[in-house]
Amino acid sequence: MPPLEDPLLPPPPPSTPCQFHLMNSTFRPRFRFPSAAMVFLWALLLLSFTASYLILVDPGHRSTSLQRNIRSSAEIRRPNGITVLVTGAAGFIGSHVSLALKSRGDGVVGVDNFDNYYGRALKKTRRDLLEFHGVYVVNGDVNDPRLLSMLFETVEFTHVMHLAAQVGVQYAVENPYAYVRSNIASLVTLLEQCKSSDPQPAIVWASSGSVYGAQNKVPFSETDRVDPPTTLYASTKRTGEEITHTYNRLHGLSITGLRFFTVYGPWGRPDMAYFSFIRNILHGKPITMYRAKNRVDLAREFIYIDDIVKGCVASLDTSGKSIGSSGSKNESAPYRIFNLGNGSPVTVPALVTILEENLKMKVEKDVVDMCENGDDSFAYVNISLAERELGFKPTTDLQTGLREFVKWYLWYYGKPLVENRNV
């Protein structure tokens, strides 16, 4: 948004040489009152310095401004609306869920720490998009209990959508502490805040389909045993499920865990495989496709972002209420886990073929065996429970979803100029 223009002021009169009078052999200038325009300019300058001091120096004013933005963002604009704190709001799924809630008139406040796992530029652009639509995103860490306390003192949240997490499977080999801090410690910090809040919010949070690991039984169902996890990332998510179940039982928190599978679409995560595929295709570089050690192509549950958003919103709407640790012994708060996938796995080579068709380009493919610390080789999920309880039914097929993703990618990043394309 361009800066506001200063009001037009009448030009000052042309300057003239100072006139002096000889008095007692001393030159003394004649005093002239400053013009009204000059007084106005000095007043503006003083106000500017005062505002800068209040914003940059005075923490009280900064806090008041922050809380005013939070309250405005949390304002409900529909009958029977809800007020939701969305963690990880500048992330892929978080930004889409926040926009969906805001567009239907719910109060939404976001929080994100803008970590540099895949670069901050895309997250900041998502934040700008959210704030353009009236969703304020607080730059902060869910692991900070003082931040959470301030947020809950400012707004009585009816629901929490906890999507902040350290994502990725391979990165856990390099930095395991990031996963423990973001996926376990942050979750406990948030649950502690929700436990002590009055009223207690209902909580929906992001688990992962990775908890199923390399099971022989397919399709994966919520009632399946999911021990032991095969990756550290999956282990932190499985731990989160156990922790949330304990808080539900001990403190009466309504909690819903969502086991996401491979989510894709516009504004997606650049660390995802399909993202790197389109990048390499456009730049004329070969792509690496992993396969299981038995030479079987990897298959994934690819689910389009719009379908995931519908599942998230439906989970909020059907979450029920937290009852508090002093609630009746004859009642208990809801505790639920749902698979949110597509129910129709697609192999990675099939996905690459669809990208090639959309881009009208071919790419060289390097096929390698998956390492031991990789994710599961075949994902096929049963979504009947989510269909029954949430009305969840994905409607976007992979061809349609990837076409929308390609259009967004070319709009956002532009089409590179590459010679000798294999068209």
TrEMBL record:
Coiled coil: none annotated. Keywords: Isomerase, Membrane, NAD, Transmembrane, Transmembrane helix. It comes from the Eukaryota. It catalyses: UDP-alpha-D-glucuronate = UDP-alpha-D-galacturonate. It is an enzyme of class 5 (isomerase). It is found in: Golgi apparatus, Golgi stack membrane. The chain crosses the membrane at residues 33-56. InterPro entries: Epimerase_deHydtase (IPR001509), NAD(P)-bd_dom_sf (IPR036291). GO terms for cellular component: Golgi cisterna membrane. Its EC number is 5.1.3.6. Its main location: Golgi. One of its GO terms (molecular function) is UDP-glucuronate 4-epimerase activity. The keyword Nucleotidyltransferase does not apply. It is a multi-pass membrane protein. The keyword Transmembrane helix applies. Signal peptide: none annotated. Residues 84-318 form the NAD-dependent epimerase/dehydratase domain. Homodimer. Belongs to the NAD(P)-dependent epimerase/dehydratase family. PANTHER family: EPIMERASE-RELATED. This is UDP-glucuronate 4-epimerase.
